[in-house]
Amino acid sequence: MTSTTTGELANLRDYLTHYRATLERKCAGLTPEQLATRSVPPSTLSLLGMVRHLARVEHFWFQRALVEVDAPRIYDDGDAGFAEVEPTEAAVAGAWTAWREQVALADAWLDRRTDDGLGQVVTFRQGTETASVRDILVHMIEEYARHCGHADLLRECIDGVTGE
Predict the structure, then answer these.
(1) How far apart are CA 131 and CA 115, in angstroms?
(2) How far apart, in whole angstroms, are the C-alpha atoms of residue 28 and residue 14?
(3) Residue 2 lies in a domain
(4) pTM for the complete prediction?
(5) I want to staple 30 with a disulfide (CB 3.0 to 4.6 A). Which of 34, 82, 119, 142 is the partner?
(6) What is the CB neighbour count within 10 angstroms for residue 37?
(7) What pLDDT is attached to residue 3?
(8) 50-106 pLDDT tens trace
(9) Domain that holds residue 35
(10) Which strand (E) or helix (H) includes residue 129?
(11) Complete DSSP assignment for 59-109
(12) Is residue 46 classed exposed, middle or buried when 0-12, 13-18 and 19+ CB atoms within 10 A define those classes?
């Protein structure tokens, strides 16, 4: 990944944007049935479940932890968004809509930040945990990187497509 941006926040955002785009590429051109294909039993891991899961992750960290919106978690299915994935056009459209909405909300929040705010500490999970904005962004990058690795393996099993 080549970047011409400067500053820590810009660098972190570049990585996050890169992995978000990677997720979209890994899912591109697949049917609802292919997107809902589970990895190996008993795992519920699928590309469609991953989109739902990452929408949930974006929502938790940006809306609930950083913005402090007191709203129910999205895809609160007991399996972090992976369960009850249906191989339908409507389910695929709903998952991508939720994910894109959460990404847009996160980016809007990040647009109002500077490097100086990365050390800000927030309290979340009913006041039981704390983290800095920097830690949350690094966690988001790690979350996407791990799941993009999963997505690469899932995609290869579905149709043989590998790499970027």
Answers:
(1) 16
(2) 21
(3) no
(4) 0.94
(5) 34
(6) 19
(7) 60
(8) 999 999 999 999 999 999 898 899 999 889 999 989 999 999 999 999 999 999 999
(9) 8-159
(10) strand 129-132
(11) IIIIIIIIS----PPTT-SSSTT-TT---SHHHHHHHHHHHHHHHHHHHHH
(12) buried
Residue type, 4: T
Q: What is the pLDDT of residues 14-54, one digit of tens each?
A: 999 999 999 999 999 999 999 999 988 889 999 999 999 99
Helix axes 8-27, 133-159, angle to 10 degrees: 20
Name residue, tokens 């959460």: 102
Q: Two tokens at 58?
A: 């974006």
Q: Which token pair is 63?
A: 């809306």
Domain assignment present for 81: yes
Residue 150 and residue 22: Cα distance in Å, rounded?
A: 12
Number of neighbours of residue 161 by Cβ within 10 angstroms = 14
Residue 1 identity: M
Reading the block at residue 84, the tokens are 């009850």
